[in-house]
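[SOLVED] Need 3D model of a two-part complex

Original post:
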Amino acid sequence: MKIIVNAFLWGIIVSSLVFFCSGCTSQNTDLSKGKELIKSDKRRKEERAVEKFKLAVKAIQNNTKDSAEANYLLGLYNSQGFYDADKEPEVYNAASINKRGDHMYQAYKNSPKEYLEILIFETLRSQDTNVQDAARYALKKVYESGNQQKLLKSLKKAITSKDNRDRQDARTVYTTIGKDPRFTQKIVEILIGFLDYKRKETRLNAVKSLGEIGSEIAIGKLVEIINSGSEKREKQRESPEVRRLAVEALGEIGGRAVGELVSIIQNKGSSMRVDAIQALEKLGDERAVTPLLNVLNEQGGRDVIVSY
Amino acid sequence: MDAKNRSVLVVFVCCSIFCFIGCTDNEYIDTTLGLTVQQLDGDLDDRWSTTGVVIKNASNQSGLKEGELISHVIGERKINTPSDFNRAIESAMRDGNSFTLEFIDSSQKQLRQRFSVRREGDDVGISVDDNNRIKKIKSGTLANNAGLKEGDQVLSIIDAKNIRTIKDYQKAVNEFSRAKATISFRTKELIGVKIAAINALASIADASAVETMIRFLEDTEPSLREPAAKGLERLVALSQLNGLFQQFQRKDTDQLPADGLNAELLQRAEILDLLTVDLQTNQAKLTDPIGTEFLHRSAALYKKISSTKITELVKKYIKREIEPNQEIRRSCLSILGILQPQSVIGDLIAVLEDNQETSGIRFKAGLTLSQIGSPAIEPLIASFDNGDSGIRDITASSLGNIGGSKARQALITFLKNENNDTTKLTLVDAIAKIGDDTSILALEEQQGSLDKTSGLATFLNEILTQKSETKRTEAEADSLDFLQDL
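Solution:
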């Protein structure tokens, strides 16, 4: 019994020591210096911090938390603006969006749960469009690397969110991933799934993304939405805003969608005729010419006596 | 099953089939009039202030066409008995529409009186006797002070029912046909759709659109004439880029080195969104899809514009007396500026000299003359000689735009003889625009004879300083080139 108690006490002491030691491991000096610089109001603070983060990324081997942070901060702050475009291409490329995205992706790899949330709900909110692009690049890499389920779950959370910015940011990520032919089919199907979602703004963003991706797979569902305007029951009608965007999306898709736009023009009861005409105008497609000439030959207003 | 039950069953089955065929969610087959009508999109009212139903199928005898939009169903109900009158009035008042009463007054004149029902519960205030003569008109009602008198005989009631849904349509047609009324439909045209179609055709720039633009420009529908004029202007402008587009066509490419192409045409094509020029990479690239699509149509459009008598057509519409719409006059002047026909110089001078015309259009006529160039110099000089200060302002700046020794000489002479200060400023500006050595010398001479505190002297001084600075920079650049060559 005594042996057991002793072993238990020793166990507690050893584990406390291990815990204490690991807790006391100080953060990489360059990383903390870099962070301090960012917080300071020193001159060229971001440029100088980036140098520190670079050193930290090189130096940190095992500490995944620190490594994640250093990589993330390097991706976040390593602006192209610090480099002279006339210099050696390698130096310039060191700050390219893809390179920054690679660092963000590395951060995700080191600490997936934390950085997936950060990338979607914080980084994409940056004022700097290069940072946004880098985050999208990183998120696409997450998708490519096969960790799709968790990413899609977070993106769903964002596009169905109450927050306008979250929804828009999620849309741009869906578009970025969906534009890659390897992933188009799946992303389009996911977006089509959102077209029945209760929040109108979610549907708006889904339709917009479908247009931006420009895949013909979406045509059928978009047409269905557009035509719902004449449904007898108001509940079954999609809102005019979403329908208008769906027409625009058909215009962006082009190709086979031209035929559908022409059908909208020919449906005299549609409220989207002008939108469809404008979409065809932007496409400049020859197939629109005859239907447009026919519109101009339509009968003008008149009074007609009918016999019965 | 006895005969009575069987007939009930047959009626029931027929009604079910009829309902099944005739009452799909947004369509209705009207067997009475031989039409199929379709519900309009619910938001057409909000977006285009349009309600009604649209004809999906129409029999030949109906006199209607597929696609026409029925906004009103109008029933003309003959009044034979007081109960006809009461029923017709009740129906007309109930739906809150407008209706017209046709009657014969005491002098046997047949007249009409229109009533608009403003709110529910309005009372027309008329009762009729067995001969359909007005028995009494109540005070404080719609008929009071409406021009009707007791004793007038009511002939018919023309009831125009506003149609919002298929149900409204069904109700109106059923009611009027039961009452054996004459039924007519009022159809409505969505002008916005036609305007959008004209704009789109002008952008796509197919050769077939030229005739369409001309047809609508010559049409009487005012809201379509202006977009048609602007559309024609765009088509003419695009057709002049054919030379540029042929270079892309010959090389079968959408990208060419910019320095090998005509800079002015490039600039015009860029303004029309057909291509983008990247000065750093020296590349002119057709925009996708508008530029790349136009590439295939450019030659046909050029051919069509060249073989159409556009000048003859548009010169009519630059005249204020013929064309009341200023925007159409402006577009037609632009077209002439692009085509630069010498035959219209006289017409342009007339616009320029028309002091009833807006100054914007008069200056535009002057600009068109400068685009025509040297053949316009003599007429412009003559116009300056005979014109007032307004005309002189325009002609002087046109001559400055054209340039050349003849225009310069005329401007210098005018400047020497001119007394009006405003015109003098324009003349100085025009001469400075020509800017060759003789012009500068003439301006310097003028400077010597001026009171140094006058506005003209300050203006002249500014121009001459600017000119000498430009000259100095150019000389420096030349010497730098020379040194580099060494």
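Edit: Chain B touches chain A through 59 residues (CB under 8 Å).
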